[in-house]
């Protein structure tokens, strides 16, 4: 399957590598491929520049948003939340139409320092903004409640724990569920929260996730929902 990953950060790298390992033909989209390859500085978290990752993943094509998405059946949004709509605009509405769009981005606002706040919350969400702007895309919000290494390798956290998804298109959610199972998520630990408006809940959880990250000193943790016996 041809897949496009929008975003060259740690999440884009993790998702692109996993999709390649699963046999997908993967293109990673960046605004300016030459500029991205020319970067030599590590990112804010100390991760090596994209060109180091690129050399280790020669099967992945780095290209522009419209070229990455034109032939893609699956699109992953792994861009900075503040730039997500802009990157999707660059991809072009016609290249998103009818396609499964897995949105992993969180609407983080770093303008008031650390920890970041959210630039949309409570009565709206980034997932809904994306679905409203691109009504023909089949948006599924998923995986945004955990560290990117856990997204593609749930075994990084011991025991049983959960991944959430939400979206307005039942068939898109079925496709996303199948993909999550191929990532290693057991069917019973994939919780469908309902419509895309449920992205408000998963995006607002990031405020707690960030404090847990600080308190625990590791990103390798996740939510395990404990239920009473039926
Ligand atoms: P990031 O640094 O948040 O985002 C990098 C990507 O965002 C780059 O590809 C960049 O495009 C694009 N971007 C930045 N500003 C833009 C703008 N104004 N217009 C268009 N594109 C713009 O990378 P990340 O840490 O991998 O996170 C990706 C997303 O996943 C974020 O929304 C984050 O909140 C969410 N998330 C991250 C984690 C995690 O483990 N890191 C976990 C859960 C959710 P160029 O390549 O063109 O520079």
SSE layout:
Layout: E1 2-6, H1 10-21, E2 25-29, H2 33-38, H3 50-56, E3 61-63, H4 65-70, E4 74-77, H5 84-91, H6 93-96, E5 100-103, E6 108-109, E7 117-118, H7 126-133, E8 138-142, H8 148-152, E9 163-167, H9 170-183, E10 190-192, H10 199-204, H11 206-216
Parallel strand pairs: 1-2, 1-4, 2-3, 4-5, 5-8, 9-10
Antiparallel strand pairs: 6-7, 8-9
The structure holds NADP nicotinamide-adenine-dinucleotide phosphate (NAP).
General description of the model:
With 230 residues, the chain is of the alpha/beta class. 38% of the residues lie in helices and 17% in strands. It has 11 helices and 10 strands. The protein has helices at residues 10-21, 33-38, 50-56, 65-70, 84-91, 93-96, 126-133, 148-152, 170-183, 199-204, 206-216; strands at residues 2-6, 25-29, 61-63, 74-77, 100-103, 108-109, 117-118, 138-142, 163-167, 190-192. It has an 8-stranded mixed sheet, sandwiched between helices. The chain has a two-stranded antiparallel sheet with strand order 6-7. Strand 9, helix 9 (170-183) and strand 10 (190-192) form a beta-alpha-beta unit. The N and C termini lie far apart (40 Å). The site of NADP nicotinamide-adenine-dinucleotide phosphate has 23 residues, from helix 1 and helix 5.
């Amino acid at each position: 399957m041809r897949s496009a990953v929008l975003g060259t950060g740690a999440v884009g790298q993790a998702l692109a590598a996993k999709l390649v390992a699963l046999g997908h033909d993967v293109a990673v989209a960046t605004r300016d491929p030459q500029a991205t390859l020319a970067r030599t500085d590590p990112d804010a978290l100390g991760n090596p520049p994209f060109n180091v990752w690129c050399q280790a993943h020669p099967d992945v094509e780095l290209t522009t948003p419209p070229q990455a998405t034109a032939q893609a059946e699956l699109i992953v949004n792994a861009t900075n939340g503040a730039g997500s709509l802009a990157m999707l605009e660059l991809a072009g509405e016609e290249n998103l139409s009818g396609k499964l769009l897995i949105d992993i981005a969180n609407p983080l606002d770093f303008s008031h320092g650390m920890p970041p706040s959210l630039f949309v919350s409570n009565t709206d969400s980034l997932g809904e903004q994306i679905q409203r702007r691109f009504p023909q895309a089949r948006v599924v919000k998923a995986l945004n409640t955990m560290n990117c290494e856990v997204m593609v390798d749930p075994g990084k956290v011991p025991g049983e724990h959960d991944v959430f998804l939400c979206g307005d298109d039942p068939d898109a959610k079925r496709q996303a569920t199948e993909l999550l199972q191929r990532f290693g998520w057991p069917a019973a630990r994939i919780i469908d929260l309902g419509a895309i408006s449920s992205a408000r809940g998963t995006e607002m959880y990031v405020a707690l996730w960030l404090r847990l990250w600080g308190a625990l000193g590791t990103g390798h943790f996740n939510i395990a929902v404990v239920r009473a016996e039926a």
